[in-house]
Design brief:
4 domains, alpha/beta, Urease, subunit C, domain 1, about 20% strand, about 950 residues, nine-stranded mixed beta sheet
C-alpha cells in the first residue's frame, strides 16, 4: 500500500502550516494602522472667527466717512443749514476756523464752506438758520462724568456710581446702571455738552466698564440707545470687535477703602497678571486651531470676570486712569510698562504738570491729561495742583483735556473750565480743543465727534458769543442733527432770551488775558506751592491810568466816585485811604510824594468782594480732618457733654479761624478780601450739616494770624441754622424736618436758658439784634419758616432779620419773601443737587429767568455765596456769568453789590470794606488781574 501523501494532501498541509506560522508570528510583529485626518468640530468656523477677532485692531471703518446716513439718525429729523457762521473745525488743525455754512442731514455733517450752490428746493424739511457771523463749534465732549449713575436730583434709589463688592471689578458695566431720566443731561446740553464718558467712582481700583453716551433723549428711550458705538459685549454687533471699549481704573488715595497705595497697585498687578495668563492661553489655543489640531483643543480659555482686562492687554480698550500724585502716576507708568498696555487719559492728575517727562514714559504713547482748571486742594493729592498746569503740560507737548467730574463740577460748566484754563495761559485754540477734539481722541471717537468735518456726526453748538468769552451761552444745540436747544415751545414755558447785551463786536472775539509768565515760572520753581506773600506799603502809593474808582461814603459803604469814558486818572492812597482822584499833577505824583507807582493800564479801583458759604478760613484741605476744625457737636442728633453747659452746643467760628491757608490767600489775590465763615459745612453727598451751625465771623482773607491788625473784622456776625430734608447718603443720624422746625420755634420763643450761648444768641436773633441765616433750599420749608417768623414777631413785637441761604426754590414765593422782608443769599453757580433744590430756575437757554433774576425783579435783597473754599478765587468769573445771564437786568454796579454791600447788609457786617486795584480792566473782564489791595482797616496797600 502506498502511504506517501498525494500532491493535493501535501499542498493542504503546507497551507495549514503556513497559516499557523503566520498566526503565531503575528503577536511579535509591529502593528500598523491607517492615518486618518482629525475631523474638525462643528463649531470650527466660530472658533476661527473668534481667534481672528482677538487679533483685530479697533477703530473706525475706512468707509465710515462715506456713509450717507448716521447709525444714530432718527427718521423725521429735519435737515439743517447753518449759514454765515464762524466755524471752528478742530480736526487735524485746532486753529482752523472758517467763515461759511454748515449743512446737516441724516445725522451727519454733509458739507462745510460756501454752500450758496446748495439747491434748497430739492431738500425736503430743511431748517435754515442765519448765524449772522456767530461762532459754531462741535458739541463739547466731557471726558469724565458720573451722569446717569449719580442722577439729579440725588436720591439713594438712583446712585450706582460705585460698588462695595471689592477693589477689582472689571466685569461690571456702567450701562447697567445708566438712568435715562437724570436731570443733569438737559443741564449739560444747556452748557453745549453733547457727548460724555460715564465713569464709575474711584472707590475701586477698577470700578467697571465705562461708556460714552450722547445726552439727547432717543425715541427708543433705552440706555443702550444713548451709547455711542456700543461694543460687541453690549449689543452683539457683527463688527463689534472693531469698536473701542472703555475702562476706568484708579490708584493713589481715592481707592483707600481697600487698603493703601501698595495694596492698590498690587490689586491691579495681580488682576493684570491673571489677564496675561488668559491671553497666553488664548494665543496657544488659537495657534493649535490654526494648525488644525482640533482633538486636543477643548474649550476656549476665558474668564468673564477678566475678559475686559484681556482686551486691555490686546489694545482694544481706551483706559482711563485716575491717578493724581506724582507717586501714583509713577506707579501707573511702571504698571503699563510691566504689562504693556496703553492708557488713553490720566484723570485729575493734579501733579502731572510737575513730572511731564514721567508721563511721556507711559507704555504705548503719552496719554491725555484730564484736569480741572482751578479746583485743587480738596485732598492732599491735589494740594500741589496749579491753575498753570494746562499751559505747562501743553508747552511740554502733552494733550490737555478739561473735564467736570460731574457732579464735582456740574457738566453744564465744562466750558468754564476751558475759559479759566485760557485765562491762566492756555492758548485759545488749545483751550477749545481741550473740550472738543482732545477728549474725543482720548476715547477713540474723534472720527465722529469733537470736530466738524464732512462725514462727522451732526453734533453742533451755535453760541451767542465767542465760546471763551465769560458768560458764553448756547443759542442752538444739535445732537445727531436733532435740535435740542432751544427746547420745544410749551404753554407753561416762555422762549428764553439768549445773548442780551452782547451786540458789541468785542463779544465775537477771543478775550485778551493777562500775562502770567512770571507766576507760572514761580509755580514750577516751588513745585506747586509758590509763596503767596505781598509787598506791604504803608506810605503813599499812586495808581496811574485808572478808568473807574470807588471809595467809601459816610456810612462806610462803597460807592462810585469816578467813572471815566476815555480819560484815565491817577489815584493817590495814603495809609490805606484814597486821598486824591484826578490828573497826575493834581494828585501829587512827584517822586518826593510817592513811595510807589502802580500802572493799572486802564484798570479799576473797586470794592473788594466778600465770600460766604464755604469753609474758607476753617480748614486747609477739605478731605483731611487734621487740617480743619473737626465736626462740631449736633444737639439734634447726639448727647452734648456736660462740660459745655449748653444744650445747643452753639459754637463760634471765630474760635476755629485759620489764617494763611492757600485757599484764603489765592482768594485774596483774586480780589476777595473778606470772608464770613460759619461752622456748618454746606450739605453735600453723604454729609448733612448740623441744624444749629453757630455764630459766624468775618475776617480778612489776606491776614497771616488772628492778632494782626484788621485780621478779625467782626467777631460775631450772624446766627446760623440749617433746615433740610434727610440726606440720601448720610450715615449720620438725621432728624425730621418737623422736629427741626419745632426745635427752632422753641429756641426763638425764648424757652432756652439765656445764660447759655444757645439761649443768648437765639434771643438776640428773635429780637432782630443779629441776623438769623437759615440754610434751606425747598420752597415748602421756606414757606413754613415765613409763617414761623410771623408767629414769633407777633408774639414778641420784634422784627427777625431772617435770611435764606441757598434758597434754590426761592423764586416760587418771591413775593412772599419780599413782603416778609427776608433776604436771600443764592449760590453763585446754581445746579440741581438734592431733592430740595430740584425746582431751581436754570436760566438761559433753558428758562428765560434765573432765580436771581426773579428775586431781583421782585425787589428782594440778594447776595451771592460760594460753597467750596478752593472755588472762592473764581467768584469774579461766576459773578460775571450771573450778571450776563440776566440779559441786561442786572448792571455792573448792582452785580458788585451782590458780593459786597448787599451781602454785608444781609449778614450784618458793618466794617469798612477794602478796595481792590485791577490792572488791565475791571473784575468783569478777562483781561484784568489783581494788582493790589487797599485796606483802610490795616492802613496799608498790599501789592502783588
Amino acid at each position: 500500500m502506498d502511504l506517501s501523501p498525494s500532491p493535493r494532501s501535501r499542498l493542504l498541509v503546507f497551507l495549514v502550516s503556513l497559516f499557523a506560522l503566520i498566526y503565531n508570528l503575528s503577536d511579535h510583529l509591529p502593528k500598523y494602522h491607517a492615518v486618518e485626518t482629525p475631523r474638525a468640530p462643528v463649531d470650527a468656523q466660530k472658533i476661527q472667527a473668534k481667534c481672528l477677532a482677538i487679533k483685530s485692531a479697533p477703530g473706525a471703518s475706512p468707509l465710515f466717512l462715506k456713509r450717507e446716513v448716521s447709525d444714530r439718525f432718527e427718521v423725521g429729523t429735519n435737515s439743517t443749514l447753518i449759514s454765515n457762521a464762524t466755524i471752528l473745525m478742530g480736526r487735524g488743525n485746532e486753529t482752523h476756523t472758517l467763515h461759511g455754512d454748515l449743512y446737516l442731514d441724516k445725522g451727519i455733517v454733509k458739507a462745510i464752506g460756501s454752500l450758496s450752490h446748495l439747491n434748497r428746493a430739492n431738500v425736503l424739511n430743511l431748517s435754515v438758520i442765519n448765524a449772522n457771523g456767530a461762532w459754531v463749534t462741535p458739541g463739547l465732549v466731557d471726558l469724565h462724568t458720573h451722569l446717569g449713575l449719580m442722577s439729579a436730583p440725588f436720591t439713594a434709589g438712583a446712585f450706582d456710581v460705585s460698588s462695595t463688592k471689592g477693589p477689582i471689578l472689571p466685569h461690571l458695566r456702567n450701562i447697567d446702571g445708566l438712568n435715562t431720566h437724570d436731570d443733569g443731561f438737559q443741564l449739560a446740553i444747556a452748557g453745549g455738552v453733547t457727548s460724555v464718558q460715564v465713569l464709575s467712582g474711584s472707590v475701586n481700583n477698577i470700578g467697571g466698564q465705562a461708556i460714552v453716551v450722547k445726552l439727547r433723549q432717543t425715541s427708543e428711550g433705552s440706555s443702550l440707545a444713548m451709547v455711542v458705538e456700543p461694543p460687541y459685549n453690549l449689543n452683539g454687533s457683527a463688527d463689534g470687535s472693531t469698536r473701542w471699549r472703555h475702562l476706568q481704573q484708579a490708584c493713589g488715595e481715592t481707592p483707600s477703602e481697600y487698603g493703601n497705595r501698595p495694596d492698590a497697585i498690587w490689586a491691579l498687578r495681580s488682576a493684570y497678571a491673571e489677564a496675561r495668563n488668559i491671553v497666553a492661553a488664548q494665543d496657544a489655543y488659537c495657534q493649535k486651531a490654526e494648525a488644525g489640531l482640533w482633538d486636543s483643543l477643548g474649550a476656549f480659555p476665558e474668564n468673564l470676570r477678566f475678559e475686559m482686562l484681556v482686551d486691555v492687554l490686546r489694545g482694544k480698550v481706551k483706559v482711563t486712569s485716575q491717578c493724581q500724585g506724582a507717586v501714583d502716576i509713577d506707579a501707573l507708568v511702571r504698571l503699563t510698562n510691566e504689562f504693556e498696555f496703553p492708557v488713553a487719559s490720566i484723570q485729575h492728575a493734579s501733579e502731572a504738570w510737575l513730572v511731564p517727562g514721567l508721563v511721556n514714559r507711559t507704555w504705548g504713547g503719552t496719554p491725555a491729561i484730564a484736569l480741572f482748571a482751578t479746583n485743587y486742594r480738596y485732598d492732599l493729592n491735589s494740594y500741589r495742583g496749579s491753575e498753570f498746569a494746562p499751559r505747562v503740560l501743553a508747552d511740554a507737548g502733552i494733550s490737555v483735556a478739561m473735564k467736570s467730574a460731574h457732579p464735582v463740577v456740574n457738566s453744564r460748566y465744562l466750558l468754564q473750565e476751558a475759559q479759566r484754563a485760557h485765562y491762566y495761559g492756555l492758548p485759545p485754540y488749545l483751550a477749545l480743543a481741550s473740550i472738543t477734539s482732545v477728549p474725543a481722541a482720548a476715547i477713540g471717537l474723534d472720527h465722529r465727534i469733537g470736530s466738524l468735518h464732512e462725514g462727522a456726526d451732526a453734533d453742533v453748538v451755535l453760541w451767542d458769543s465767542n465760546p471763551l468769552q465769560l458768560g458764553a451761552t448756547p443759542v442752538h444745540v444739535w445732537i445727531d442733527g436733532k435740535l435740542q436747544i432751544p427746547l420745544p415751545p410749551r404753554s407753561d414755558r416762555e422762549g428764553p432770551i439768549v445773548g442780551g447785551g452782547k451786540e458789541d463786536k468785542k463779544w465775537a472775539r477771543f478775550p485778551s488775558v493777562p500775562d502770567w509768565e512770571k507766576e507760572r515760572k514761580q509755580a514750577i520753581e516751588w513745585e506747586g506751592l509758590p509763596p503767596l506773600t505781598t509787598r506791604k506799603q504803608s506810605g503813599n502809593v499812586v495808581f496811574l491810568n485808572v478808568r473807574n474808582v470807588w471809595s467809601g461814603n459816610a456810612d462806610g459803604k462803597l460807592q462810585k466816585v469816578h467813572r471815566s469814558g476815555s480819560d484815565l486818572v491817577a489815584v493817590t492812597v495814603r495809609g490805606g485811604r484814597i486821598v486824591c482822584v484826578g490828573d497826575k499833577i493834581a494828585c501829587g505824583t512827584d517822586e518826593l510824594d510817592a513811595n510807589e507807582y502802580v500802572d493799572l493800564d486802564g484798570g479799576s479801583v473797586v470794592p473788594g468782594m466778600m465770600t460766604f458759604g464755604s469753609p474758607l478760613g476753617l480748614e486747609e484741605i477739605r478731605s483731611e480732618p487734621s487740617t480743619g476744625n473737626g465736626p462740631p457737636f449736633d444737639a439734634f442728633a447726639e448727647p452734648i457733654p456736660a462740660i459745655l453747659n449748653d444744650p445747643g452746643a452753639l459754637g463760634s467760628a471765630m474760635d476755629a479761624l485759620m489764617f494763611g491757608t492757600r485757599n484764603a490767600l489765592t482768594a485774596y489775590r483774586s480780589g476777595v478780601t473778606l470772608g464770613t465763615a460759619a461752622l456748618g459745612k454746606p450739605a453735600s453727598l453723604g454729609s448733612s450739616t448740623n441744624v444749629i451751625a453757630g455764630m459766624s465771623v468775618t475776617f480778612s482773607t489776606g491776614s497771616s494770624h488772628a492778632m494782626e491788625r484788621g485780621a478779625i473784622v467782626q467777631k460775631f456776625v450772624a446766627l446760623h441754622v440749617a433746615i433740610h430734608r434727610p440726606d440720601a447718603f448720610s450715615k449720620k443720624s438725621q432728624v425730621s424736618v418737623s422736629s427741626q422746625i419745632a426745635g427752632l420755634r422753641r429756641l426763638l420763643s425764648g424757652w432756652e436758658n439765656q445764660e447759655t450761648d444757645t439761649g443768648k444768641w437765639f434771643k438776640r436773633a428773635a429780637e432782630g439784634v443779629v441776623p438769623l441765616v437759615i440754610d434751606v433750599g425747598n420752597a415748602d420749608i421756606m414757606a413754613t419758616l415765613l409763617i414761623l417768623k410771623a408767629e414769633i414777631e407777633n408774639r414778641f413785637g420784634s422784627r427777625i432779620r431772617m435770611v435764606f441761604s441757598g434758597a434754590a426754590e426761592a423764586h416760587i414765593l418771591a413775593q412772599e419773601i419780599r413782603a416778609a422782608s427776608v433776604g436771600v443769599i443764592l449760590d453763585l453757580r446754581p445746579v440741581v443737587g438734592g431733592w430740595d433744590d430740584r425746582r431751581t430756575l436754570p436760566g438761559p437757554p433753558l428758562t428765560n429767568d434765573t432765580t436771581l433774576a426773579v428775586l431781583f425783579r421782585e425787589g428782594v435783597k440778594v447776595g451771592l455765596k460760594c460753597r467750596e473754599a478752593q472755588d472762592v478765587r473764581n467768584m469774579r468769573f461766576d459773578l460775571t456769568r450771573a450778571m450776563l445771564t440776566s440779559n441786561g437786568l442786572i448792571s455792573k454796579d448792582e452785580a458788585y453789590a451782590l458780593v459786597s454791600n448787599n451781602l454785608e447788609d444781609l449778614l450784618g457786617v458793618t466794617m469798612e470794606s477794602d478796595l481792590v486795584a485791577y490792572a488791565g480792566g475791571d473784575l468783569f473782564e478777562a483781561s484784568s488781574k489783581t494788582a493790589a489791595v487797599i485796606s483802610a482797616q490795616r492802613g496799608q496797600v498790599d501789592i502783588f
